[in-house]
Amino acid sequence: MCEDVRVAMSARLDGEDPGRAPAEIDGHVAGCVACTAWLAEARRLPRPVPGAPGLTGRIMAAVAADPVIAADAARRRAAAEAHGRYQVLRIAVAAAAVVQLALALPVLIGAFLSSELGPHAGREMASFDIAVAVGFLAVAYRPARARAFVPVAIVLAACLAITSGVDIARGVAGFPHEIAHLVAVIQAGLLWALSRAGSDGGGGVRPARVAGTQR
After folding, report:
1. Averaged pLDDT score across all residues of the chain
2. Statement to judge: residues 85 and 43 lie in one domain
3. Which backbone phi and psi does 16 adopt, to 5 degrees?
4. pTM (2 decimals)?
């Protein structure tokens, strides 16, 4: 009871709501020698002056200037920026996969066939493109798998780029058809960037704790 009353008296001295009825506080003090002495001592202490500038700004500035806290804040900002780039790369990988699906599905169902490919070869190529696109969608959904897909994507992109360039130069393939392979090259670059972003902490790795806190 004494502890509660003293908290209420302290609030009342500071001009705040004591949270108790004045009669209850005064009645307790009148019958309690210890609280009467406590109140007399509290009244002798300097009280905050209304309208006087507070120390909050100076205290917060001192906290921000602490090298440990400043370093932790910098790590948190860097982690937030890395996470933002990570999410953008995930969306880009998914978008490239959707484009690849949009190009391959019409060929698979026979709605469009290149003049340079027969129906059977065209559908085989479309099936391959769809499988690759589904793999990239899976990586966009679970980016932790990106690193395992990177070698496959880079080899695929390199082979398609080289063979397409050779076929275009020899005149055995048209540029409009080979331009579809550009998606695989873009996907390989995005996948590599996504795997690097994940290893650099963009995948949600929490910044280090302030020194002295529990690990």
Report:
1. 75
2. no
3. -105, 170
4. 0.49
